[in-house]
Amino acid sequence: MGWVSEQLVEAAQQGDLESITAVVHGAHPHVRRFADHLCASPQDAEDAAQEALIVLYRKIGSLRATAALASWMFRIVRNECLRRVQRLRDEAAEPALAASAEDEVLRRLEAERVAEAIRALPDVQRRVLIMRDVLGQPGRAVADGLGLSTAAMKSHLHRARTTVRLRLHGSPHA
Predict the structure, then answer these.
(1) Rg value, the chain, Cα
(2) Residue 12: alpha-carbon gap to chain centroid
(3) Above 80 in pLDDT, residue 17?
(4) pLDDT band per the 50, 70, 90 thresholds, residue 93
(5) What secondary structure letter does DSSP report for 60?
(6) Helix, strand, or coil (residue 25)
(7) pLDDT value at residue 56
(8) CB contact burial 86-121 (16+ within 10 A = b; e otherwise)
(9) How confident is the model at residue 128 (pLDDT cuts 50, 70, 90)?
(10) Residues 153 and 142: beta-carbon distance below 8 Å
(11) pTM (two decimals)
């Protein structure tokens, strides 16, 4: 945690407004960089980073160990990025009723397996897959948004889909 001292975090936890402001300001570039790696678009990354900083500002007093600040912030960012993808997916999908509680549990377990397989992808492949398959953006827009040629975007998408498929079907090589 080279960007913030333990004393500053402790003062922020005690409610010192200047210390809270300093911690939030110091955290922004680190939080944003992490969000850039997890979120599908730069706008989502900025929004997720801002949400995480708001949570930090409001709840730093509930942080138990000052050394846990970085992992706490990154967990908040990760959850916010996942929440944004989930919200977009839910908005796009028609509401479906689960036939039973068992079906709902199985659906959630499968969704978590898919999310874990996607999280394990290399950065560019993960972004391409999320933008194209989860968010449904056109290929050209995905390529342009990531600064790739259409051919490179298609190649990354193919590799990502193949890797996810292999991981979900239990291949030890994925």
Answers:
(1) 19
(2) 26
(3) yes
(4) low
(5) G
(6) helix
(7) 87
(8) eebeeeeeeeeeeeeeeeeeeeeeeeeeeeebbeeb
(9) very high
(10) yes
(11) 0.49
Here the tokens at position 144 are 């342009």
Burial (CB < 10 A; 0-12, 13-18, 19+), residue 138, is: exposed
Average pLDDT taken over every residue of the chain: 83
Half-sphere exposure of 31 (CA within 13 A, CB side): 28
Please identify which residue in the block is written with the tokens 């990760």: 78
Cα-based torsion angle of the residue sequence 128, 129, 135, 138 in order, rounded to the nearest 10 degrees: 60
Strands (E), the chain: none
Helix (H, G, I), strand (E, B) or coil at 10: helix
- Minimal CA–CA distance to 150: which of 141, 160, 162? 141
Residue 145 burial (C-beta neighbours within 10 Å; 0-12, 13-18, 19+): middle
What is 13-27 written as a DSSP string? HTT-HHHHHHHHHHH
- Report, in this order, helix, strand and coil percent for the chain, each rounded to 5: 80, 0, 20
